[in-house]
Amino acid sequence: MSLNVKSRTPRNRKSAKSRRVPFKRLTEPPESYSPAMSRSILPGRWQINAGIFLLFVLGTLALYWRDLGIGFFMVDDYGYVTDDPWIKGITLTNLRHILFTPHFANYSPVHLLSYLLDYTIAGLNPLAYHLSSNIWAGVVAGCVFLVALALTGRRMIAVAAAALFVVHPAHVEAIVWISSRKDLVAAAFALPSLLAYLCYRRGGPTARRSVRTTSCSG
User: Fold this and answer.
1) Rounded CA gap, 61 and 133, in Å?
2) What are the residue ranges spanned by the domains of the chain?
3) Which residue among 35, 38, 138, 165 has the highest number of C-beta atoms inside a 10 angstrom radius?
4) How confident is the model at residue 48 (pLDDT cuts 50, 70, 90)?
5) Closest by CA position to 139, among listed 75, 170, 184
6) Please, which residues bridge with residue 103 across strands?
7) Where does residue 124 fall: left (phi above 0), alpha (psi -120 to 50 degrees), or beta otherwise?
8) pLDDT by residue (tens digit) across 135-182?
9) pTM (2 decimals)?
10) Integer CA distances (angstroms), 108 to 86, 105, 124, 183, 206, in order
11) How far apart, in whole angstroms, are the C-alpha atoms of residue 115 and residue 88?
């Protein structure tokens, strides 16, 4: 007597293939993601995260308070600030020049507009320019905290990353040297843009509209 035994290997192979979860590529539109991903990318209460952000701003001001009495540097500060006629007054001519003309082979209009604001408030008092740079550095440190929190989901790691940014000697030049403020200004816009992109990738159509609104307002 012969037994007719059917092999179950093809069926099992097909079943395993059907259960395989498709790999989501970064290039796929956010609508293809699960609705569960629409939760906030910043874990924890927003009041706590905002408080830590503010603490980094205040901590940076406290750490760099000694640079308020340094004055202007001989290198570039005179070309960017004291001898630059285009930051001395909010006029249509000055704004047009700042927005459409490179300065020292660099095109950084927001950087120059920050000097224009400093001059409007305090003239050529170097203390105001150093204080402004310290505030920019504190804002960037807070943004580093938020981006690290969004990427890792762990508040202690995010705090450590932002603290390292503030105290690392490599960043002293960008904070203390007034002419090097361009690095802080660029980071102050790049980091929130990265955070908005992460929110866009996770949130779908609603986040897309929010990112577009933020981009237009910026």
Assistant:
1) 10
2) 42-217
3) 138
4) very high
5) 184
6) 106
7) alpha
8) 999 999 999 999 999 999 899 999 999 999 999 998 899 999 999 999
9) 0.74
10) 13, 10, 20, 10, 32
11) 9
